[in-house]
Amino acid sequence: MKEVGKIWMNGKLVPFRDAKIHVLTHALHYSTAVFEGIRCYDTPKGSAIFRLPEHVDRFFRSAKLYSMKMEYTKDQITDAIIKTVKASTLKECYIRPLAYYGYGTMGLTPTPNKVDISIACWEWKMGESKAGKQTGAKCKISSWLRIDSRSQPMQAKAASNYANAALARVEALKNGYDEAIMLNYHGKIAEGSAENIFIVKDDQIYTPPLTSGCLAGITRDSVIQITKSDGMDITERELERDDLYSADEIFMSGTAAEVKSVAQVDDVTIADGKMGNITKSLQKSFMDVAMGKDERFIHWLQYI
Questions:
Q1: What CATH number labels 137-290?
Q2: Which of 138, 140, 157, 188 is catalytic?
Q3: Could you give the percent of the chain with pLDDT greater than 70?
Q4: Rounded to whole angstroms, what are the CA distances from 285 to 52, 198, 252?
Q5: 26, 70, 184, 255: least buried by Cβ within 10 Å?
Q6: What one-character DSSP code corresponds to residue 21?
Q7: Is-catalytic flag, 157?
Q8: Do 250 and 200 meet the contact criterion of CB atoms below 8 Å apart?
Q9: CATH 3.30.470.10 residue spans of the chain
Q10: CATH class label, 6-123
């Protein structure tokens, strides 16, 4: 990772390499942390953060579900995110706000410890999300089940959720795939390791409901709103494994992934294995919105 700019930690901007925590930080041992992933795009009108208020709202909702007492307001965190992006000198970057139970009392109970907050950003290049942008990604149905709300709050973007996702991602990569698709405890499609999932069948778009255990993705919501504004409908319903195999198109959405196509699930090629027209159109529409070229959604951009 290229170390540029500074990282915001509990109200102060510190040099990138000096942003350190104690080895006995509670979150490091018990995964008691929540976070956000936010994109800043280099648009023709300057750098703009995508859907910043929605990300900050979710950040605070996640913290509440983990009984975190935030010492900063939403406005203060919003201002801190903007300051951190400016300090980075990057025109385009990935932004990571993180709230975590810090160093203090060790033991399972986190609440005696102070909640620390950091905000970092780094240069974003086509990496993990490359597969699916030009050619379709190859996905594996994971042997690891997606944890659900009977175990922990799934609408919190919590670090602990991603230990489950990391197992699925590593398994997929080891088996020669680009990404994992996770089933819930009822055998229904939940999401990818870090993306929401959509299928197209007979020109209709379907996506699992939030009750499937998937995260309420902000890019997912963006895709739904853009699609409806373009005159198409998206139906939320439970999806079976064979719904994927028989789909005309499959695509995924996420802050890192944006909109990417899926060409293969397990050993089944989806349709002709090429990016479908609806996926291609949505991919372009989403990037037009992110780059400030669609006036209908210009309010989603926070220019800095």
A1: 3.20.10.10
A2: 157
A3: 98
A4: 19, 16, 14
A5: 70
A6: -
A7: yes
A8: yes
A9: 6-123
A10: alpha beta
